[in-house]
Amino acid sequence: MTTANDAMLKTERRPWGLRDTIWTALILLGSYFAWDVFGSLMDVYEIGILIGAAIFWIWFGRFWPSIQPFTYATALLSLLAIWTYVQNDNAYAASETAFFLKFLVSSQSAIMWMSALYVLSTVAYFGGLFGKSESVSKFGTFLAWAGSVMGAVGMMVRWNESYLINPDYGHIPVSSLYEVFILFAVMTTLIYLFYEQRMRTRAMGGFVMLIVSASVAFLLWYTFDRGAHEIQPLVPALKSYWMKIHVPANFVGYGAFSIAAMVGIAYLIVAKLQEKNPNSDFVQRMPSLESMDDLMYKTIALGFAWFTIATVLGAMWAAEAWGGYWSWDPKETWALIVWLNYAAWLHIRMSKGWRGKPMAWWAVIGLLITTFAFLGVNMFLSGLHSYGEL
Prior knowledge:
The protein contains 14 helices and no strands. The protein is mainly alpha-helical. Helix 10 (242-276) runs antiparallel to helix 12.
């Protein structure tokens, strides 16, 4: 049975308007400012990354207009935090003395806010679903957006803080397991929010935010038990422009695969309940099985495309850093296993027409494979990527 929530929001061509002009102008202005201030520290590849990022973000802001206010909020809070640091004689120590930094937007404070907002979003999504309250579900969406802003602010401010500690420490915050868990949480949430708008339903929000809340739980343990939030200098192999593009591309893939798995769990629950009582309130409030199956396909296709790009970039980075494109390092081997798993998933669906429960179970099992490649390798195996150990 198809419900009203299953109507897909088609992407329409919008005429160029004032909003797009302002967006483009601000992106170009910000990019020029970054080049003007930091251009002397950039090599030709990093300048190319800056230009490519500006072009992508201009296009992305038109493709998905909701990313514009998210970007404005992130930029404003990040700049205010950096400005506050600059106003203090002992800049880095200001995170413990300046009220605005200590309780809101120092990197650690922002990440704690992100963690709380994501957990509350999970609760609100489930509260709206089981309480049949659209207003509570909308609040869950608001909290997910707010958490994403604070997570992005935390990463941007942490980037600045790494230079305040020691210019030689300075690096984009995607180098340690702690930092990439923040990236994973933000990336996964933003991808979900995109599809939430496309599908015009918040019913799957709680399921997806469960995996984000799980990553938050790990992040908090990693922070308070291991002190992983402390900014450390980069190992030599990571001092490369490749890190700026390889790691984010990887985590688009990880985030999309995680969403597919959580949608798969929702699919299996709805399918089971539908067999017993197809007219139950829960079944009626959830998207149709066909819509969830389609979303699994779209997110796995998205993740596979980006993961493929990341794998190619990683091979090129390895050739530069270690003298060979492939060394059968445990991390590389498990990345290949992840890639083959989802390649097979897509091949079976497109060539054999498989749908439904088998593919949902496969998506869930795929998350276990991906989790081991992402985290388990760091815990149990060693190799050239040993700098990512717990």
